[in-house]
Amino acid sequence: MIKLVNDKSLFGKVQAVVYTIEFQKRGLPQAHICIFLHPGSKIHNPKDVDKFISAEIPNKDSDPDLYKLVYDHMIHGPCGDANPKCTCMVNKKCSKNFPKIFNDEMTVDSQGFSVYKRRDNGQYVVKSDIMMDNRSVVPYNHTLLKKFQAHVNVEWCNQDGYIKYLFKYINKGPDRATISLVQNNNGDNEDTNSDEIKAFYDCRYVSACEAAWRIFAFDVHYRLPSVTRLAFPLPGEQQVIYGANVDIKDILNKTTNASSMFMGLFECNKNNYLAKSLTYSEFPTKFVWKNQLRKWEPRLRVLQLVEFMPFHQHSTRLTI
């Protein structure tokens, strides 16, 4: 999917991609993907959203394959009064705010949320003997739905709240479960000598699907382009990580701990003319930080470019 979106520019020229894989309690994985489009490809007009996102049931006669996919994967519910026991129901109301309202064209409400086009055109599907129309359709993209034939919800992120919702999955950590280990030989379910400290453990929940995913070394977090975090520690104030049983004198006398990414920048500027032409934020584009050596070294593609560059271009580059 990333190749289709990024290399083939399904939504336009892509500037950055971030995704994370979440494993639910049932073990089913789902991907939360946030795509940042290039300024020249950004969608500024809500009406242009209809080119990429649809929230309507297609015509069964003109496109039966797409109709079947929407029926199988992109219909929410039934819930509400038709099915009050649905898992999405909270306080007798759908937590996903389904069914939506009919809308003749794509708009943005007063709170900045997208209100997709859902026309009352008579299209419907029947699930669990309940007739459901466009108000129960989860927004999707025609190409992605036909390509992957799975539940692929596509939304237009036009406010910070959407991006915050997606990025929280990257930093929230793994799912955890609280379990109780009880030894009872009396044949009943009552435990009179319960020790809460010994019985309860904060454990990480790893399903079989997640275990297989990690055994095959598939990406759980992904971002393009890569990001280097630059720190600004003053001399002698950089962070040092060491073991609990290591002598503190050995740590203080270790020469590699005296160098940081920020101080290594100045050391690199002493002997490298290319480094002098770069700011600190531009430095990772031409140099890579070697953590074991505690110093910056030119990237391989930069060395190859300089090696085959004519002499007059070398001179011009050095004068920048």
Would you kindly provide a written description of the structure presented here, covering whatever features stand out?
A hairpin with a 5-residue loop joins strand 1 and strand 2. The chain has helices at about 1-5, 65-75, 140-150, 160-170, 195-200, 210-215, 250-255, 260-270, 275, 285, 300-305, 310-320, and strands spanning about 15-25, 30-35, 90, 95, 105-110, 115, 125, 130, 175-180, 200-205, 220-225, 285-290, 295-300. It has about 325 residues and is an alpha+beta fold. It has 3 domains: about 1-45 and about 155-225, no CATH class; about 60-140, no CATH class; about 250-320, no CATH class. It contains 12 helices and 13 strands. Helix content is about 25%, strand content about 15%. Mean pLDDT is about 80; it is low at about 305-320.
Structure summarized in a few sentences:
With 320 residues, the protein is α+β, with helices and mostly antiparallel strands. The protein folds into three domains: 1-43 and 156-227, no CATH class; 59-140, no CATH class; 248-318, no CATH class. The chain has helices at residues 2-6, 64-73, 142-148, 160-171, 196-199, 208-215, 248-253, 261-271, 273-276, 283-286, 300-307, 311-318; strands at residues 14-23, 29-37, 89-90, 93-94, 107-108, 114-115, 125-127, 130-132, 176-180, 200-204, 221-224, 287-290, 295-298.
